[in-house]
Please model this.
Amino acid sequence: MNKTTVTTVVALALGLGGGYLATQQPTVAQASAKFAKKDLQNPSGYYYTNKGRYAFHWQNKKSGHKTYHYLVMSDFKAGIVYTGSISYHQISANRRTFTTTFRLLDNGGKLTSTKYKFGLYKLSNSKYRVKLYNSGSRRLVSNHGTTYAITRTTKNPFTRMFNAYTKKSLKADINKVLTERYNDGYSKVDPKSSDGQKALNTGVHAGYVYVKDAFSLKG
Model:
């Protein structure tokens, strides 16, 4: 999927109908601060920035006898997951920068025409730098934009980051829709009632599961 918004699936889950929902560069690079040839098969782990409220990872997925390579990006500030199909990887001559070229998938799983490129600069086995850039309505990893310090981890950070940066705004969005439907007479469930709170929590959970599965390339 190119763009998966939590509010889209929440509307469906609730039966609402329709959709809305600077680190100094070291002079001498140690071995741990260099990329290896095996990374060309997709770097392992998850990469995130709390300040940028963003996470991404590379993932391989088999279909029949073929293996496809993807880049999955989650913008927790906007509650959106983007999936990119990788065209190629490249490691710089000094092996400090890992460049990925990709094309986004649309909501129907088809490749879009625009190619995007970004470089991940390695400082150590767990510390990196990357740039985020607003391309239209999208915020993507890029060779342009604002630089962020990136941490690599083997544990999926999605749940922690969703709870910290997405859940509150999602809950407010769902509550707004429930309240409007109640005030307009489309629903008899008062959002302030126990049933209304159950509907609210159901919507938040549905949104969480949907985008978490998208981030993990499930389905």
User: Anything to note?
Assistant: The CA atoms of residues 64 and 219 lie 15 Å apart.
